[in-house]
Specification:
globular, two-stranded antiparallel ribbon, 6 helices, about 180 residues, about 15% strand, single chain, binds magnesium ion
Length: about 180
């Protein structure tokens, strides 16, 4: 397995897990949730193929810990960037800066980073403004489905985790070519 060039930042709610299936405790912390059909398999596969993956998500630290402990896929994330800990939510630059720092990335890596999310206002606008590639998974009917601002426009749109997997493969090939061309 060769090292992957593409670096993946991903949201969780309605991107990997289905928010409609979330169960909460009395304090409002999520205790468990189901995957969007196919999303668990895709996350596991991308991890096994050697992609560096960071969770970049808005919510409570304990909610994400609970969900990914229960579903068993927490090990797929190299770093967990959670708004409760960071103190700001996407599209805040601070969320993306924290992700860069925790993943040991710098400005030159930006052309190789993708942000996957379901929310145009948070994930897509955040990624666009930050200068990384935005991928919109439009599976969930929740939240925005119209581009209210110019910078809400995703670089790529996919409808299912399987489509996402195929797109990541194509972007990885492009990234490998680009890396080769910059070595001299
Ligand atoms: Mg979300």
């Amino acid at each position: 397995m060769s090292e992957k060039q593409l670096i993946i930042f991903t949201d969780s709610g309605d991107t990997i897990i289905d928010e409609a299936t979330q169960e909460f405790d009395k304090a409002g912390i999520v205790t468990r949730a189901e995957f969007i059909p196919g999303a668990g398999k895709v996350l596991k596969r991308l991890h096994e193929e050697g992609y560096h993956i960071a969770l970049v998500a808005d919510g409570e630290w304990d909610s994400f810990q609970n969900v990914y402990r229960e579903n068993g896929l927490g090990y797929c994330f190299e770093q967990w960037i959670v708004s409760e800990v960071v103190g700001e939510q996407k599209p805040s630059v601070k969320m993306f800066d924290t992700a860069m720092e925790k993943m040991g990335l710098s400005e030159e890596d930006k052309p190789f980073i993708v942000m996957i999310g379901n929310n145009l206002k948070k994930d897509i606008a955040g990624a666009n403004r930050y200068g990384i590639t935005s991928i919109w998974l439009d599976y969930s009917p929740r939240y925005f489905h119209t581009e209210e601002e110019a910078d809400w426009h995703p670089d790529y749109t996919v409808h299912t985790p399987e489509e996402l997997y195929a797109l990541i493969g194509r972007l990885e090939m492009q990234a490998e070519k680009r890396r080769e061309n910059t070595i001299w």
